[in-house]
Amino acid sequence: MFKTMFPTLGRFRLFVQIAMLLLTVYGSNVVGFYMAEKVSNALPALSCAYDQQNGAYCALISTQHLLHHRIGEALAKAQQITFQMFLPLLFTLLTFFTFFFVLGKAFCGWVCPLGTIQDLVNKLGRRFNLPLHRLENGNVSKVRPVKWLMLIVLVLALPLLTGLGITPHSLGNPYCDVCPSRIATTLLTGSTEQIALRTGDGIAFTLGAIANTLAGFILIAAFAVRQPFCRICPMLSFNAVFQRLSPMRLVKKQHDKCDKCGICAKACPMDIHEIAREHGAKAFHEDCTLCGRCVEFCPDDGVIQMKWGPIVLFKSSREYYRQRMKGEMPDGTIKATAPHKPGSGANDA
Fold first, then answer.
1. How far, CA to CA in Å, does 216 sit from each of 117, 185, 187, 317?
2. 3 state DSSP class of 284
3. Which terminus of the chain is less hemmed in, N or C, by CB atoms within 10 Å?
4. At what angle do helices 83-103 and 33-42 cross, to 10 degrees?
């Protein structure tokens, strides 16, 4: 008999993801409106579905609003920039950094509701044996700059230019207007308000159309590509800027077999090929979401570790790898259960 309930990091991560998905989408229905308003202030991002009346408590939306309504307008009026203008942004970022210090980029791999949805959709694709498309090294390098472009243009530049009066008011928070997480998570609550297009404003209509198209494309692409939106998400680049400030990190030792093995790179849902070649700080790539799959599918003891400061949270193990491979391939393909042969088991007559 094989162990059907072998405890894996992947299963534990999936449990955490689903729990956080339920919390960030339906949590306010349990705790009530007043508690939801308080809790939504503590969520770092993507809480639109959790508290729809106060969904704009996100490091990205707060940054856009402050650049638009405070910093940009103050520069346009040539007024003296005071500390009071930066105080709300300062508290927003302090809240973000406090949370980020504890979890670091694991927010992307373990908590983000859109990341969980993409994971679940991709698992369905693997269950139905749909073809899986990986991004090779050349294609990955072409995609990676997009997340920085999204951060610079949509989160930072356009809100600031709107505050300066250069761009229309409709571009005050453009990333939120095209964010697929806002649509995907609110649809899970049964609300269709976010997919409705605003016809009175051409820019707002265009942003809404882009949002609906992007959300649909992401959900369909997730069947064949692992984490398609995470690769271009500005939150990933925002986290990458500060990833060295968190004690939560990935550590990889140099090993002679790594150049010939490459299994960890195949297991990586972000197609980070550097994990198989690099070691030390270089192995902790800016695209890493700390999902832990490279640690799970490393076939050598202690070569890759997930650590919080000096504390080892999880490390690669040859025995763990053997058990993990019984049910799933590194790329997520589910292994078919081998038929039981008479006479091969201890309970056979």
1. 13, 13, 12, 39
2. coil
3. C
4. 90
Spell out the residues 6+ positions from residue 270 whose beta carbon is closer than 8 angstroms to its own: 226, 227, 230, 231, 287, 288, 289
Q: Residue type at 150?
A: M
Please state the pTM of the whole predicted model. Answer: 0.76
Residue 216 φ/ψ, nearest 5 degrees = -65, -40
The answer on pLDDT for 196 being more than 50 is yes
And the tokens for 68?
Answer: 């638009």
For the stretch 62-88, pLDDT in tens is 778 778 877 777 777 654 555 556 667
CA distances from 323 to 16, 35, 83, 268, 292 (A): 21, 43, 57, 18, 16
In angstroms, what CA-CA distances link 94 with 35, 77, 91, 97?
A: 22, 28, 5, 5
CA angle 14, 224, 269 (to 5 degrees): 45
Tally of CB atoms within 10 A around 322: 10
Q: Residue 284's closest CA among 235, 250, 255? A: 250
Note the residue count of the chain. Answer: 349
* Exposure of 282 in the CB half-sphere (CA atoms within 13 A): 8
The torsion angles phi and psi of 58, rounded to 5 degrees, stand at: -135, 140
Please give the C-alpha separations between residue 228 and each of 45, 122, 147, 180, 220, in angstroms, as whole numbers.
19, 10, 12, 11, 10
Q: Tens digit of pLDDT for each residue in 259-269?
A: 889 999 999 99
For residue 100, what are its two tokens? Answer: 């980020």
CA distance 207 to 209: 5
Distance CA 43, CA 11 (A): 24
- Order of strands across the sheet with 304-308? 248-252, 304-308, 311-315
Of 41-50, 95-104, 117-126, where does the model show the most confidence?
117-126
Pair of tokens at residue 177: 């207007």
Within the chain, what is the greatest distance between any pair of CA atoms?
A: 90
The one-letter code for the residue type at 84 is Q
SS3 of 200, please?
A: coil
Residues 6+ apart with CB under 8 A from 89: 62, 63, 66, 70
